[in-house]
Each structure stands twice: as structure tokens, then as C-alpha cells.
Design a protein that fits this description.
Length: 104
């Protein structure tokens, strides 16, 4: 099995074939195939490592978009003492769930 490091949404992820992964929201539709450039490619044992500067030439990772959604709600409270100021804010981060189909 092959391991690769990809970058999307300002974050880096270690991926293998067949893995499901939640990443920052992507604009593509559900069912579409997307392609990521690989930053590092290795086999399972850690041998035959190819490190890019910053990308490995000719290597890419293909993934299929499974679903779009929102994460769990995170609540934040603003409070200022002695002024009767209280605010509660909720936020749900949008995400895209992808399935890694191949590392080439």
C-alpha cells in the first residue's frame, strides 16, 4: 500500500488508498473526481520515499467526493463584566468528505 501527503484547505493530510477523509469545503459536486498533487510519496514500510520540493513531479492523488456537510456546532460566549453584555454565538464548519481512490 502506498502512502502520500496531500495539501488542501491550508492543511496537510497523510492518505492511503481507500481512506475516507473530511477536508475543508470544496466547490466540486458530489460524485466528481478531483486530483491533488502529492508532496511526499512512500510505500507502507517507509522505503522508496520520494520527497518533493514542494511537489513530487509526476505523482498525484485522485479522490472522489462522497458528501458535503457541516461539523458539530461550536458555541462561543462573549461577556463583559458590569455592563450587562452577553452574547452567545454558534458556528458549524462546512466540510467535504472524500474517498481516496488512487495514488499514482
Amino acid at each position: 500500500m502506498t502512502i502520500a501527503i496531500i495539501k488542501t484547505g491550508g492543511k496537510q493530510y497523510k492518505v492511503t488508498e481507500g481512506q475516507d477523509l473530511k477536508v475543508e469545503k470544496l466547490v466540486e459536486a458530489v460524485g466528481q473526481t478531483i486530483k491533488f498533487d502529492a508532496m511526499l510519496v512512500s510505500d507502507e514500510a517507509g522505503e522508496n520515499v520520494e520527497v518533493g520540493a514542494p511537489l513530487v513531479a509526476g505523482k498525484s492523488v485522485e479522490a472522489e467526493i462522497v458528501e458535503h456537510g457541516q461539523g458539530k456546532k461550536v458555541t462561543t460566549v462573549k461577556f463583559k463584566a458590569k455592563t450587562r453584555y452577553r452574547r452567545t454565538i454558534g458556528h458549524r464548519q462546512p466540510f467535504t468528505k472524500i474517498k481516496i481512490t488512487s495514488i499514482k
